[in-house]
Design a protein that fits this description.
Structural class: mainly beta
Largest sheet: 11 strands, mixed
Number of strands: 23
Order of helices and strands: EHHEEEEEEHEEEEHEEEEEEEEEEEE
Radius of gyration: 22 Å
Number of helices: 4
Low-confidence stretches: 1-41, 115-123, 125-142, 184-191
Helix content: under 10%
């Protein structure tokens, strides 16, 4: 796999209109015939018939969100990573950001942030596992598959995973592409977390909030590759920063972590992702950089790209550290990866309630249970093992922290936990000097106790 150069203009003599029609007809013919199965259990590329009108709408949308690259890097997993000039990125098309000046760095980093010398350093960790003590190598930060190419984006550009026609065709519709589905309101306590199982989503989360103002959160998240039963299901592990009404149309949410989503990415690899909404997942916001909003500043990390390597059962464990916090002077919500690698930020203009502060933070896992054939899904959460299996077997979140009103990182001393169906997925929290507040979570989904 190598570098793909810039597009070259066609020197043929046919009029541009004829070229467009010919290319469109060829594309339609290919898509109508294609029915390739790329996995024994998931069909990523078999679509219903696609009309030329629909394909033309999709092409126009892709032309809008895929900005012209300075350089394109081909990843070993098939992704195309476009190096786009940072001032040409999609975020700046947002009507609220027309005159936005890109903030190069936050005015302040949260106090208490650790700074590492080499983010690829390996370390070991002794943890109590089921059956005795286990010693497993833990690398502080997993990295991304496109880095294996050896090519980096030039200075002044940002890496953006290119969206394709196939990506859009896997979605329910063009409107739904890159978006979470709206949540279904259920009766709930005012201090309960934003988890609603009525729309087929199931969770195992820890949460804190409602009684204090919070300005950010941090956690280190174990990375696995859970299996997914059907293409429109996903499994993710993330942190949520929330404010607004959980039952109303004005919930603000900022989210980041890793996810496996065949519908969104066309494979079953775990990928770094972000999400935002300012209206309860109705019209605003999207995953990653699939709409105008998040402004990327980092030239090394591609949001939506695959994370590699991943953890293995009773083997090496890999995790990623994510911190999101509000710049105390400017108001933008910054994201860092590792201990001090800035990725970019969500501008303050995007939000209503989060323009002030967060009222709840959540950490944990989420899956979609579509109940194929009337049975609970086999889609796994985390490692696919229950919390009681412990280190090296169950997935974990460790070193849970929040950013307080003084812009200081503070350890979370206690959390509440919630799982809708502990026979399918569960969670258990603990505390230690090394890992602070942490928890194991996850499960296999369908099993004799979870039919």
């Amino acid at each position: 796999m190598g570098i793909i150069g810039r597009k070259r203009r066609c020197s043929c003599s046919a009029p541009p209109e004829d070229q467009h029609v010919l290319l469109l007809t060829f594309f339609v013919a290919i898509l109508l015939q294609r029915a390739v199965v790329e996995s024994s259990t998931l069909n990523y590329t078999k679509y219903r018939q696609t009309s030329s009108l629909r394909l033309e709408r999709i092409t126009r949308h892709l032309d809008k969100i895929n900005k012209p690259p300075v350089l394109t890097i081909e990843s070993p997993d098939g992704d195309l990573i476009d190096c786009v000039h940072k001032r040409k990125q999609l975020a700046l098309d947002h009507p609220l950001l027309k005159n936005h000046k890109i903030q190069k760095t936050p005015t302040e980093m949260p106090r208490g942030m650790n700074v590492k010398g080499d983010e690829n350093d390996d370390s070991t960790s002794d943890m109590e596992g089921k059956g005795g003590s286990v010693r497993v190598r833990v690398r502080e930060d997993a990295w991304q598959m496109w880095h294996l190419n050896g090519t980096r984006c030039p200075k002044g550009t940002v890496p953006i995973r290119r969206s394709t026609v196939h990506d859009v065709l896997r979605a329910k519709s063009l409107y739904d592409f890159g978006k979470k589905r709206s949540r279904v309101p259920l009766s709930r306590r005012n201090d309960a977390p934003d988890v609603l199982s009525g729309n087929g989503h199931e969770h195992a989360i820890a949460y804190t909030g409602s009684s204090q103002e919070m300005y950010g959160a941090k956690a280190t998240i174990n990375v696995w590759d859970p299996s997914i039963q059907v293409i429109n299901e996903f499994s993710l592990s993330q942190l949520w920063i929330l404010s607004g009404s959980f039952d109303g149309p004005d919930l603000n949410s900022i989210e980041a972590g890793w996810q496996v989503s065949p519908e969104l990415y066309g494979d079953s690899r775990p990928r770094l992702f972000t999400y935002w909404t300012s209206d309860s997942y109705r019209a605003t916001g999207c995953y990653n950089l699939l709409c105008a909003g998040f402004i990327q500043t980092n030239s090394r990390i591609a949001i939506g790209a695959a994370i590699s390597p991943v953890s293995s059962y009773d083997g090496n464990q890999y995790d990623i550290t994510i911190l999101i916090w509000k710049d105390p002077k400017v108001g933008n919500w910054w994201m860092s990866f590792g201990d001090n690698t800035l990725v970019g930020y969500w501008p303050a203009e995007l939000f209503t309630h989060l323009a002030e502060h967060a009222t709840m933070v959540e950490w944990g896992g989420e899956v979609v249970n579509s109940r194929t054939n009337g049975e609970h899904t086999f889609t796994q959460m985390g490692s696919g093992h229950f919390a009681e299996d412990g280190f090296g077997k169950a997935s974990y979140f460790r070193n849970l922290q929040i950013v307080d009103m003084d812009n200081s990182l503070a350890s979370v001393l206690s959390v509440s936990t919630l799982a809708e169906n502990t026979n399918c997925y569960d969670i258990k929290s603990y505390y230690s000097n090394e890992w602070g507040t942490y928890f194991y979570y996850g499960g296999p989904g369908n099993n004799p106790r979870c039919p």
